[in-house]
Amino acid sequence: MTKLSSHITALFIVVALVWAFVPVFSVEEAEAKSLWNTCLVKITPKCALNIIWVVFGNGTLYESCCHDLVQEGKVCHDNLIKYIADRPSLIGRETQYLKKRDDLWSHCVSVSKTA
User: Fold this and answer.
1) What is the C-alpha to C-alpha distance for residues 72 and 48, in angstroms, rounded to an integer?
2) Burial of residue 98, with CB atoms counted within 10 A of its CB: 0-12 exposed, 13-18 middle, 19 or more buried
3) Largest CB tally within 10 Å, which of 45, 47, 49, 75?
């Protein structure tokens, strides 16, 4: 009887946790869809991949992508990079990526002003 009671308690806890966290995951999914619909449509796929490679890898920036990045806007750029940097596989390196994001933005703004 005690074993059955502990199984029921465990089941209740699992259901409660799922019920509590499902809205969090759906908000994150909605946020991703919003970022996609409002931000990524403002930049070419080639430049989006280049910018991601520069921030999260060792890529070299195509100067032509600076114009796209500035057109996309700082809010979109910041939110998209932060969204990617918050992935569990990147935990612990967020500060590094956010600095690269800010350095890239500053560079592209200066390049766009001189063009």
Assistant:
1) 10
2) middle
3) 47
51 exposure class (CB count in 10 Å sphere: 0-12, 13-18, 19+): buried
What is the phi/psi pair of residue 108, to 5°? -70, -35
C-alpha 10/C-alpha 8 separation (Å) is 5
Confidence of residue 8 (pLDDT cuts 50, 70, 90): low
Average pLDDT of span 97-106: 94
Contact 68, 115 (CB under 8 A): no
Average pLDDT estimate for 82-92: 82
Sort 18 into a burial class: Cβ within 10 Å, 0-12 / 13-18 / 19+: exposed
